[in-house]
Amino acid sequence: MPPFHSQHLSPLFLLPTELRHRIYEYYLAFTHSSFLADSLRPTVEYLDPSKPYTTALPSLPQTCKRAYTELAPMLASTAALRVYHPGARNGRRIGFAVHGRLRFERLRCLILIIDLEYAYWNEWLEFFGAVVARAEGLECVVVDWAPRRAAVRAGTWEVRRDAKKERIFLDLLKGLRGLRVVRFYGEMLGSWAEEVEGGMEGGGFVVRCEAGRWWNEPGFS
To answer: Looking at the record's lineage, which domain of life comes first (predicted)?
Structure first.
């Protein structure tokens, strides 16, 4: 590591700003190890304002003042929320991946990873609603959706239940007034993108629905 006064001579800072920011995006990308405290009690773990959830910053902004200055807006602006089932004898868990302190008011992009065989709406939808209510500044939401659609007969209570939960979920997204980008990935109703786009006021927003999974890291794809 060069002395502090010569850090600005690093080849990293000789690159164009746009390219350097792309490198930062790659550097800050979340992985399996980013989820440090998956919990059966996420409301207690993540929503208690007296005990804000905090993780260590990556090494680069800790050791380089200029890198910290350039990375600071990115560190607090993005978080990933994962719902998954770790095993047959364990309940479904919810976890956050963040860099530093989880500050809902500073979030601009939220990545929602539903890594379950079925939707199990009751396990996470209420918590997701509590999160977006605190993150009023969200501009981008990415939904990585693993659940497959259950084979049920039309008109059954399961179909009505899922339709109701889907409506609540999509209404939560449409209620984010600052939202400009929504990306759906995975097996889901093709109408989700149209539903959200039709419910967003004004213009200048993008809604996309893709068949593949967003997270291609082994274990998530």
So the answer is: Eukaryota
Rg (CA), the chain: 19
Query: Which is nearest to 139 in space by CA: 189, 188, 83, 183?
Result: 183
Give 78-98 pLDDT, tens digit per residue.
Answer: 999 999 887 656 678 999 999
In the chain, domain spans:
17-210
Q: How far apart are CA 175 and CA 179, in angstroms?
A: 9
pTM of the shown model: 0.86
CA distances (Å), origin 179, targets 106, 107, 112: 14, 12, 15
CA–CA gap between residue 163 and residue 157 (Å, rounded): 10
Cα 33 to chain centroid, rounded: 15
